[in-house]
Specification:
The protein has 11 helices and 17 strands. By secondary structure, it is α/β, with parallel strands linked by helices. Helix content is 32%, strand content 23%. A 7-stranded parallel sheet has the order 7-8-9-10-11-12-13. A 4-stranded antiparallel sheet has the order 4-3-2-17, with helices on both faces. Strands 1-5 form a two-stranded antiparallel ribbon. Helix 8 runs parallel beside helix 9. Bound molecules: 2-succinylbenzoate and magnesium ion. 2-succinylbenzoate binds next to loops.
């Protein structure tokens, strides 16, 4: 078919979180989210940049992403005849890093192409192996263990199928022990966001007695080799998040034995083409994957749902209901989770939800169209 992107509109929106979210690298109370609208033949596709407000999860943040899109990623696709959305990622190879920035545009073009073809996004990316996806929640560092236990209880009552808790030095073994004492049966995992080093291996081994599903990204954001060493010393499976930015990294991590599970985040790997490649590499190696989250608005959430319908997404992900984060989401209806802890993918063309344009306009703090 082919299409030409005539305009790209960047918007920054501000969305206060219903509850502050704290990880080992910091605390977030309000999101600054970039939305990317890619326009061809009068049809718009939408993407979300998943960078945080500071360069603490990886090197990207809202402002760096704006500049990358404005000066590098946008100009590379504007006015160019594309045969397929799969041509966008290869146009970005000259840009080192900054995958969340250009990945937001890449995802917007997949959504656009799906709409031009009248297909739901999940089908267009080759998904649909499951149309009902299992959901877990990620629970940030809390003021007290009691507060954490109360939160877990509420999420289990809502139906979520697994609980992930954030850990850091000083909020780890003793906290997990209390959680296990109270909830001996639940599917439980922890995420350290790179808060430890290999010198902490003996300490981390104390987590082995709590039969966790996995420990996510315990060591440095860019260190696959040390994770391989740590995995040899742990019974608990390591899941890599920050370390895996490409299918090549996935291959190398698997070959070295650095992980037994991979968290795929659409933005972190630069969009759908690379996310599918990571998925395929893991599948071929018998490594299950699940879909991570970055406190996304409804747009990013809807993309994550589409991605989660690929066959090797075998474990509950971090994709949860809009209302856990937002008083009002920017899509209609908001993402809802069933009492069984699942989300059913929608069949409308593109990502499947309606945009709330009035609300988006009301919370936009800057907007620029490049043509
Ligand atoms: O490491 O998975 C992570 C949020 C911000 C930055 C990093 C991470 C997270 C989460 C939240 O765990 C997952 C969600 O969006 O619900
Ligand atoms: Mg993580």
């Amino acid at each position: 078919m082919g299409f030409t992107i005539e305009r790209i509109r960047l918007r920054e929106i501000r969305m206060p979180l219903v509850h502050a979210f704290e990880t080992s690298f910091g605390r977030t109370t309000e999101r600054r989210i970039l939305l990317v609208e890619a326009i061809a033949d009068g049809v718009s596709g939408w993407g979300e940049v998943t960078a945080g407000e500071h360069p603490f999860y990886n090197e990207e943040w809202t402002d760096s992403a704006w500049l990358i899109l404005r000066h590098y990623a946008g100009p590379r696709v504007l006015g160019r005849k594309l045969e397929s959305a799969a041509e966008v990622a290869p146009l970005m190879t000259q840009i080192r890093g900054h995958r969340m920035a250009w990945g937001g545009l890449e995802a917007a073009v997949w959504d656009l192409e799906a709409r031009l073809k009248g297909l739901p996004l999940y089908a267009h990316i080759g998904g649909g192996a499951h149309k009902t996806i299992p959901c877990g929640v990620s629970i940030g560092i809390q003021e007290s263990v009691d507060a954490l236990l109360a939160k877990i209880e509420r999420e289990l009552e809502a139906g979520y199928q697994r609980i992930k808790i954030k850990i850091k030095p000083g909020w780890d073994v003793d906290v997990v022990r209390e959680v296990r004492r109270r909830f001996p049966q639940i599917r439980l995992m922890v995420d350290a966001n790179s808060a430890y080093t290999l010198a902490d291996a003996d300490h981390l081994r104390r987590l082995d007695e709590f039969y966790l599903m996995m420990i996510e990204q315990p060591l440095a954001h860019d260190d696959i080799v040390d994770h391989a060493e740590l995995q040899r010393r742990l019974e608990t499976s390591i899941c890599l998040d920050e370390c895996i930015r490409s299918a090549r990294h996935a291959e190398q991590a698997i070959r070295l034995g650095a992980c037994r599970i991979i968290n795929i985040k659409l933005g972190r790997v630069g969009g759908f083409l690379e996310a599918r490649r990571v998925h395929d590499v893991a599948q071929a190696a018998g490594i299950p994957v699940w879909c991570g989250g970055m406190l996304e608005s409804g747009v990013g959430r809807a993309h994550n749902i589409a991605l989660s319908t690929l066959p090797n997404f075998q474990l509950p992900g971090d994709v949860s209901a809009s209302k856990r984060y937002w008083a009002r989401d920017i899509i209609h209806p908001p993402v809802e989770v069933s009492p069984e802890g699942t989300i059913t993918v929608r069949e409308a063309p593109g990502f499947g939800y309606e945009l709330d344009h009035d609300f988006i306009r009301a919370i936009t703090v800057r907007e620029e169209t490049i043509a």
